[in-house]
Give the backbone structure.
Amino acid sequence: MRIDVLYGAEHLGTQEVQGRVVAMIDVLRASTTIAVALANGARTVIPLESSEDVVTRSKQFERAGVLLAGERRMLKMDGFDLGNSPAEHTREVVEGKTVLLTTTNGTRALLAVQGARDVVVASYVNLTAVSAMLRAALRGGADVTIVCAGQHRQFALEDAACAGRYVYQITKRLQQADVNDAALAASLIDRKYGDNLMRLFSTAAHGRALAAAGFEGDLAACAAVDSYPVIPIYQDRQITKLGPERER
Ligand code: MLT
């Protein structure tokens, strides 16, 4: 029973992925936005590398059924329907739609995960739901890798803290779980900030950048623990939510 935390998807090797359950975290904001979009009834979210990929892929859909979404430097791209703000992915906008999403770090981290048994998108807004899924996987004998997407190949404090919270949740009362040093460090960061996620976000570089760009409201949305209790599973190049219509 192993749980490894990795800082940056570029460190992913076969050993950390093959046959494992992988949780990808980009708290600010891609993994939060994906959970919000699915909870609000998006049919699926398709992560893509670039804005060009989004435009090309959109041509395979009826225009009315698809939303072009994503950010560069935190802002919506020209001609796109939505940015990467969870506040934009409301039920009125996303219900029944396919969301084609490209973000600077989060969607790229997801695309880098190849060969995992399952890939799940994790954040604070779906903490308990995703933790339960990861605990069940561990109990069933799977090893777990938590990938912190980070910022431009750099360590991101908020992703590490969230990873630490997941390590805590999924190892509670599990004596035999082995964790790597990165997971221990993540746990220390989680303990330092505790439930004061707004303090965490206002300390972290990307949290400060989002606030300066006018997205303070997104910080509160990303800090709302368990507000969108969905389990987003990335499989066959798309993310859908686990539920009655999609069991594992
Ligand atoms: C990313 O994927 O880099 C982020 O979600 C950026 C953002 O805050 O939109």
